[in-house]
Amino acid sequence: MANYKYHLLVCGGTGCKASESDRIVNMLNNEIRENGLSSDAKVVTTGCFGFCEKGPIVKVLPDNTFYTRVTPEDSKEIVMEHLVKGRRVERLLYVDPETKKHITDSKHMGFYQKQIRIALRNCGFIDPENIDEAISRDAYIALGNVLAGMTPEETCNVVKESGLRGRGGGGFPTGLKWEITRKSQADQKYVVCNADEGDPGAFMDRSILEGDPHAVLEAMAICGWAIGATKGLIYIRAEYPLAIKRLKIAIDQAMEYGLLGKDIFGSGFDFEIELRYGAGAFVCGEETALIHSMEGSRGEPTFKPPFPSVEGYLGKPTNVNNVETFANIPVIFNKGAKWFASIGTERSKGTKVFALAGKINNVGLIEVPMGTTLREVIFEIGGGIKDGKAFKAVQTGGPSGGCLTQKHLDTPIEYDTLIEAGSMMGSGGMIVMDEDDCMVSVAKYYLDFTVEESCGKCSPCRIGNKRLHEMLETITKGEGTMETLDKLKTLSHVIKDTSLCGLGQTAPNPVLSTMDNFWEEYLEHVEGHKCRAGSCKSLMQYIIIPENCVGCTACARNCPVNCISGERKQLHVIDQTVCIKCGTCMEKCKFNAIEIV
Amino acid sequence: MAKITSLNDLRKIKDELQQKIRLRENADSPEAMVQIRVGMATSGIASGAKEVFIFLVDELEKRNVDAVVTQTGDMGYSYAEPTIEVILPGKDPVVFGWVDVEKADEIIEKYIRGGELVEGIIPANYNTIDD
Ligand SMILES: Cc1cc2nc3c(=O)[nH]c(=O)nc-3n(C[C@H](O)[C@H](O)[C@H](O)COP(=O)(O)O)c2cc1C
Ligand code: SF4
Ligand code: SF4
Ligand code: SF4
């Protein structure tokens, strides 16, 4: 067997694939062959490295050199310089945004320093399409140990002791859920993995499935043993073709090795896993809707209780967990519940994966211990706000969550503290906003989403959220009054209290949290008819500054609606009632005589 | 593929497979291993650094020493090429000059495994090595 001196890890996540990481792999392999290095260097396609902002990424080991924004054409230089001559290719190295220095080694990047990787431990480390690589990183060892020496009850207890809580949004204690399902009596039970991931901007679960599918399969089998189920189902949205492909490969390989299927490890325990495809409706991520959708009926939520753990898929007890929740399970068994519980805080154990997005320098996927502060995530790992602008807010919890501000920056990230602060953990989307974002418009954006995604089954959500959206629209047009603000708040509370499922119950959260934290912006919109972020078009005015206007007529000649009047060499004026705010006049004026107020 | 029918089977397979990604595992925690850097600028390559590099990687593997061997550019000791820098866990870096395969063998046996110093150490100003 050849003993490779170099491993070149190439990110093959959805983001980097879009920027041709496949071609990079081919060209690297060609160059390696041509230079006679085939027995020295090995190219491995891995899952996401998380540093998507600067993708595609190529990491060269053992020296941990981290090349960013690599193009297929760079392959030759990487092989010739780095592998043949032992010199790093300086121009492809990551540049620290603060010191402006090249950073050669991923260990010294602020982005990775505060991270602890449990759920993402193998993402960007192994080839997800090769079960051998997963096995060399302990895959299925935990399952083997559980089947060899633990009763279902003991298995549930390990999960309980670890303190793991659901990563799909609600934060329900996972061990307790397993135990409830275990105690439900039935001839058949099911394990369901929720891979619906509907939050806009979220891609945590997709990355785990693409980077380390065996972790999820193994965890589902452990769960099957713990609750007494022999069948597992993964509900995944059809828009995730790469994740689906890798899951299928992983299931086939595990079946072939006998790590799934009949009589696993000769223990007599059988476990099989099938995929079910969702059409990508947000509400189908809600567990009862998800179950109905798998049964072939409409993906609409139903009232709980009964909870799925008692009566779920085909009326049988069903344990539903999120992808990331499952990805933690094998590590908990391998390293021990105590080890897991030692990470994080009193009431939130372990780590959480977040998808960083918005006006932040390092857009990407991160995993941090619970209790890390928002400031550390945004300014240390995330590298701060883009273009040196001022931080304004961070949205967590997606359409069910809320916006947190400057005063929350030192809040530790935990299930309970985020709720107290008026937001929630959610599944892990984190969108950072700067001074150019209008908070009323942000609330409206989330309502756009929930109104679109409401299944329409109950009226508070179907009608109420539409009304909220209309009121927000009125406010952004500058037509709102104090009464609108009052109604907005009252109706929000009614919807929260009376909706049938989590979608409706949480839809007003973005409204309430922005009203709480940015009340003055709402006031400015209704009283001053002003939008300080300059994003509500109806509230902007283009005006001509008399001192600067020389009467060149350029603006008047170019205005598409002819609303600028004035004689040659005389002051010009804009008729505000006709102006459509297209901005043409400002562009055309060479004398800086037009401004926005 | 043969079926894996017991936990022991899986463990055995795992141990074999682990060799293949040893390089990646080690790279993840270099502080705990022997770290060796081989100066491989053009002059280093001309003077045989490549052979030394390959020899080190293969021999350390054979002799079961957990080590991370990397190439680096010019180390700034061009008079003493090929040069290698060795960092034992918890120790200061030591630079050896005029290293050929024979010398490398001696360094593995005496310095790395035995902790004794061998001929050929050059006064280190290791600040210049990295940049
Ligand atoms: C509207 C709505 C959408 C949801 N979408 C998801 C989702 O995409 N993925 C997910 O894991 N859980 C989602 N959930 C939460 C699930 O209902 C369920 O609580 C979760 O899958 C349980 O797994 P956990 O305990 O491991 O988090 C959603 C809930 C609601 C109300
Ligand atoms: S709250 Fe909304 S999404 Fe949920 S059942 Fe009612 S209408 Fe459907
Ligand atoms: S913004 Fe457009 S519509 Fe308004 S005055 Fe200028 S050119 Fe005319
Ligand atoms: S283009 Fe500027 S300077 Fe010319 S008339 Fe219009 S506002 Fe005045």
Provide a concise account of the structure shown.
Chain A has 597 residues and is an alpha/beta fold. Chain A is built from 24 helices and 19 strands.
Q: Explain this structure to me?
A:
The complex is a heterodimer of chains A (597) and B (131). Chain A is an alpha/beta fold and 597 residues long. Chain A folds into five domains: 107 residues, Glutaredoxin (3-Layer(aba) Sandwich); 211 residues, 3-Layer(aba) Sandwich (Rossmann fold); 84 residues, Ubiquitin-like (UB roll); 90 residues, de novo design (two linked rop proteins) (Up-down Bundle); 56 residues, Alpha-Beta Plaits (2-Layer Sandwich), CATH 3.30.70.20. Chain A has a five-stranded mixed sheet. A four-stranded mixed sheet of chain A has the order 2-1-3-4, covered by helices on one side. In chain A, strands 9-8-7-10 form a four-stranded parallel sheet, with helices on both faces. In chain A, strand 5 and strand 6 form a beta hairpin. The longest helix of chain A has 18 residues. The mean pLDDT of chain A is 91. Chain B contains five helices and five strands. In chain B, 44% of the residues lie in helices and 16% in strands. In chain B, helix 3 crosses helix 4. Chain B is of the alpha+beta class and 131 residues long. A five-stranded mixed sheet of chain B has the order 2-1-3-4-5. Chain B starts with 6 loop residues before the first helix and ends with a helix. In chain B, strand 3 and strand 4 form a beta hairpin. Chain B has a single domain, classed as 3-Layer(aba) Sandwich (Glutaredoxin), CATH 3.40.30.10. Chains A and B meet through strand 1, helix 5, helix 6 and helix 11 of A and helix 1, helix 2, helix 3 and strand 2 of B. One iron/sulfur cluster binds next to helix 23 of chain A.
